[in-house]
Write a structure and sequence with these properties.
The structure holds two protein chains of two kinds.
Chain A (H helix, E strand, L loop, with lengths): L2 H22 L2 H27 L4 E8 L4 E7 L1 H24 L6 H20 L3 H19 L6 H32 L4 H6 L1 H5 L4 H15 L8 H4 L5 H10 L4 H13 L3 H23 L4 H22 L2 H32 L15 H15 L5 H14 L5 H27 L15 H19 L1 H16 L16 H18 L1 H7 L11 H23 L4 H23 L13 H19 L3 H21 L3 H22 L11 H27 L7 H12 L4 H9 L1 H31 L1
Antiparallel strand pairs in A: 1-2
Helix pairs in contact in A: 1-2, 1-4, 2-3, 2-20, 3-4, 3-11, 3-15, 3-19, 3-20, 4-5, 5-6, 6-9, 9-12, 11-15, 12-14, 13-14, 13-18, 14-15, 14-18, 15-16, 15-17, 15-19, 15-20, 16-18, 16-19, 17-18, 17-19, 17-21, 18-21, 19-20, 24-28, 25-26, 26-27, 29-30, 30-31
Chain B lengths: L1 H19 L4 H22 L24 H32 L20
Classes of the chains: A mainly alpha, B mainly alpha.
């Protein structure tokens, strides 16, 4: 029963071990181990795919915080297996690729630590059955993404992009958590499997719309949906293997996964349908359109990823059987071709030193294998048979045509997007690899096997799945669809569906797409004016928001943390005045204690002397006078103790007060002379505050003394002082017997203060010696 | 008698608060000393001390018989007096050293940890 948690844990263990492996072992062996880990997990999940596809499910639930209904529970069904295979499979290829890509990088061990951390988190995310657990892994993927985007931390752009993605997905994560908690309270459980039984209650709840909005916003930030899409292109600062792994194949699909996972709970309502369709369709169009204007290879791919994620969200929003099937097939197709294309882009960048397609060309002769991988991936992206992308696109069209409402709008939007995809795929393929060779910063050449394996295998997989779609459908797609829907799917994937409207749409798309590709230059010139709209985009709002946030933070710091001790003390005193004063005068009823007794004349005299001495200490212009006044206050206090039955206190006070005065006098010539530092206004302000404090403490004393005294402890000491401790002076007995340990503590404080003072005085000597 | 305590406590608190708000470090220490006196007296007053009734068991008795001043606050204050002496002594050394290092007694001039105001360094 611990297998599944152990599987999730593996990634985290590998993450901790990676830097050590990298440092201690030869590169080859370290790479081997780090590729083997995801590969072994891949084999484990592949092995599970069989039983899962015939309806078996695996789960485990360990208690975590039972009081809050939070469990450490995992479940494996078709949907999780599909994602887990993508995560581990592409993870293995990326780990291999990175060993070549990062050759000579001193921090590669760190890179593997982040990658493995991500893999473990992402596996946990897709396997978790508890919403809170899922949230924890969700945030962990954001954090590992932050580390990976900022991997080249010397680059300011990389750090800014990392922070941006963390903030966008992090804020989205918090919103998601709110949605989860609301969903948990509405549905009565945080366990997804329990919520699946309770979907009707959730959908009919008055809080349904709030739950839906919060969770959808959370998912949209992660999956880069409009208007949160801007962090994904910026995240292209990450090394290319990271872009291939996190920012196209897996992490950005976490939102899609979540929506698919909860679609049986929240889906099948008009709100779900319209919200997700609108967001998805907008993202799909905006992403494809923005991709068209890019010239950086990775940014083109990033924007088409945004667009593809939009398609997936749209499909889940449609929430029909055919749309779910389309979503799952397209998800796999996209992961394969986009992963391959990102790795190709990484290779091109690595070999030539640039990713700008205007500066690239003719690489097919120097890098034939990479070009082949790019060809396979680009054909799949364009949706040409016999690749998986073709089947995915056919299913997307079919689902849009069968959409419950607005079918023609969605189909039109889909055609527009796919036309751009065809044109972009053609550009991504032709610009770097065809034409004549151009001068590039580095001299390009075919990279080593480690950097070829990933793109080629992913490209070939796209071809194989396209040629034999039935096997893919049976083992992975149908179980995944079954996990999200109650109605049985009868999907049979095939390349050839006969002559039907969908095929016609495909042909139109290809033809138009090719035309658009040929006209790219003139289209770009014609739409150049749209570039000005960029300043209105969400990235700008993010910048403004960040600036305001930082401004507000530094304002707060200036006010609250300005380094002026007097200011801090003033705040403390005023706060205490308020916090003590309010309950004192408003909340506490008038006491019914003993009546006030009249003061004797000598007591009044002492009081006057103390007060005058305190005033003297304030007004004294010399240090010695102030210390003398302080001594008078202390001795006056001692006299009060004498009169009011506290001989021990009086003796201690006399002794200590004398010592204090002596100490002051001894060091006073080393202390600065008094000078008037504060102005009239400040003194007036402090005087008012001090007077208010004095008045309040005075009233506090009176109010306390009007309350009856009720001490539960004193009678014990009074009764047992002589009997148990053989002492008649109760104060002494308390100090040396009943609370002897406290006294020991007090002596310790004295000793520590003495040592500290001694050390402080010695410190100067050692400094002098050093100088 | 309550009035005497209340007035002295209030007066000492006011003086102490005023002094700790000064910018001179020496005044700050004097303010701290005044505040601790005021707090001690407040604790003492809460024990409802009576005139001439120390908490000492009489010769012919086995237990402390009323009326007596509460011994518990007295024990607390005794500790407090000693500790505040330790604090004052330590603070005195600290400000002496700070003054030697920084060269100013103005707390507002001691706002940063970098050495710009360091007297000895060139």
């Amino acid at each position: 029963m611990f297998t599944i948690p152990a599987v999730v844990l593996t990634g985290f263990v590998a993450s901790v071990a990676a830097p050590w492996l990298w440092r201690r072992l030869p590169r080859r062996i370290a790479t081997g181990i780090l590729v083997f880990v995801p590969l072994a997990l891949f084999a484990y999940f592949l092995n599970l795919a069989g039983p899962v596809s015939v309806g078996q499910s695996f789960g485990v639930s360990l208690p975590w915080v039972p009081q809050l209904g939070i469990t450490f529970s995992f479940a494996i069904d078709g949907l999780s297996v599909l994602f887990a295979l993508l995560i581990t499979g592409i993870g293995a290829l990326v780990a291999l690729y990175a060993s070549g890509y990062l050759q000579g990088d001193a921090h590669a061990g760190r890179f593997y630590a982040y990658i493995m951390l991500f893999m473990g988190s992402m596996l946990g995310l897709v396997l978790a059955d508890n919403l809170i657990l899922l949230f924890v892994f969700w945030e962990l993927t954001s954090i590992s993404s932050y580390f990976l985007i900022g991997y080249n931390h010397e680059r300011q752009e990389a750090r800014a992009a990392a922070l941006q993605s963390l903030l966008v997905t992090g804020v989205g994560g918090l919103i998601l958590l709110a949605g989860f908690i609301l969903l948990g309270s509405v549905g009565g459980s945080y366990d997804v499997s329990a919520l699946l039984q309770n979907g009707e209650a959730v959908r009919s709840s008055p809080l349904y719309l709030a739950v839906l909005l919060l969770i959808v916003i959370g998912a949209c930030t992660k999956s880069a949906q409009f208007p949160f899409h801007f962090w994904l292109p910026a995240a292209m600062e990450a090394p290319s293997p990271v872009s291939a792994y996190l920012h196209s194949a897996t992490m950005v699909k976490a939102g899609v996964y979540l929506l698919a996972r909860i679609s049986p709970i929240l889906g099948a309502t008009p709100e779900w349908h319209y919200l997700l369709s609108l967001v998805g369709a907008t993202t799909m169009l905006v992403g494809a359109a923005l991709a068209f204007g890019q010239s950086d290879l990775k940014r083109i791919l990033a924007y088409t990823t945004v667009s593809a994620l939009g398609m997936l969200v749209l499909m889940i929003g449609l929430d029909t059987l055919s749309s779910m099937e389309a979503a799952m097939v397209f998800l796999v197709a996209h992961a394969l071709y986009k992963g391959a294309l990102f790795l190709v882009a990484g290779t091109v960048d690595h070999e030539t030193g640039t990713r700008d397609i205007r500066r690239l060309g003719g690489l097919r002769r120097l890098m034939p294998v990479t070009a082949l991988a790019a060809l396979l991936a680009a054909l799949s992206m364009a949706g040409l048979p016999p690749l998986l992308g073709f089947i995915g696109k056919e299913l997307l069209y079919e689902a849009k045509l069968q959409a419950p409402a607005t079918a023609w709008i969605l189909t039109a939007a889909g055609i527009g997007t796919n036309v751009l995809f065809v044109a972009l795929a053609a550009r991504v393929l032709t610009a770097p690899f065809l034409g004549s060779l151009k001068e590039t910063p580095h001299k390009p050449g075919e990279p080593g096997l480690s950097m070829l394996a990933g793109p080629v295998l992913l490209g070939l997989l796209g071809l194989l799945c396209g040629l034999f779609p039935y096997a893919l459908g049976k083992t992975l797609i149908i179980p995944a669809v079954a996990a999200t829907r109650a109605d049985q799917t009868t999907l049979e994937l095939a390349l050839w569906h006969g002559f039907n409207p969908v095929l016609a749409l495909s042909l139109v798309t290809l033809a138009t797409g090719f035309a658009v590709f040929l006209l790219t230059g003139s289209l770009l010139r014609a739409t150049a004016f749209l570039g000005r709209l960029r300043s209105l985009g969400p990235a700008r709002w993010y910048a403004i928001g960040m600036k305001a946030l930082i401004g507000f933070a530094s304002l707060c710091t200036d006010v609250l943390q300005n380094g002026r001790l007097g200011w801090y003390l003033l705040t403390i005193v005023l706060a205490s005045l308020l916090l003590v004063g309010y309950p004192l005068f408003v909340l506490i009823p008038e006491g019914a204690g003993p009546a006030l007794t009249a003061p004797a004349f000598h007591e009044l005299l002492i009081a006057v002397v103390i007060l005058l001495a305190a005033l003297g200490a304030i007004l004294a212009s010399s240090r010695l006078a102030a210390v003398a006044a302080l001594g008078v206050v202390g001795f006056g206090m001692a006299l009060l103790f004498v009169f009011y039955g506290a001989p021990d206190l009086a003796m201690t006070q006399f002794a200590i007060e004398s010592l204090t005065v002596i100490l002051f006098v001894l060091v006073i010539h080393k202390l600065p002379k008094f000078s008037k530092l504060s102005g009239r206004g400040e003194r007036l302000r402090d005087g008012i505050v001090a007077a208010a404090g004095g008045v309040m403490m005075c009233l506090l004393t009176l109010i306390i003394l009007r309350q009856p005294l009720d001490s539960a402890v004193t009678p014990f000491y009074a009764a047992n002082s002589l009997l148990l401790a053989q002492g008649r002076n109760v104060v002494n007995v308390i100090l040396v017997d009943f609370r002897a340990l406290d006294t020991l503590g007090e002596i310790t404080v004295l000793a520590v203060a003495g040592l500290g003072g001694f050390a402080l005085l010695r410190l100067r000597l050692t400094r002098k010696e050093r100088q | 008698m309550e009035l005497v305590f209340a007035l002295v406590i209030g007066g000492l608190y006011a003086a102490g608060i005023y002094m700790i708000l000064r910018r001179s470090i020496v005044k700050l220490i004097i303010g701290l000393a005044l505040l601790s006196q005021a707090a001690n007296l407040l604790i003492f007053a809460v024990g409802r001390p009576g005139r001439g009734t120390p908490p000492i068991v009489a010769k012919d008795a086995t237990t402390l018989l009323p009326p007596f001043s509460d011994p518990l606050p007295q024990a607390l204050i005794l500790t407090a007096i000693v500790i505040s002496f330790a604090v004052t002594a330590f603070a005195l050394i600290l400000i002496k050293r700070a003054y030697q290092e920084v060269g100013t007694d103005d707390l507002d001039a001691m706002r940063t940890t970098d050495q710009r105001q360091h007297a000895g360094t060139p």
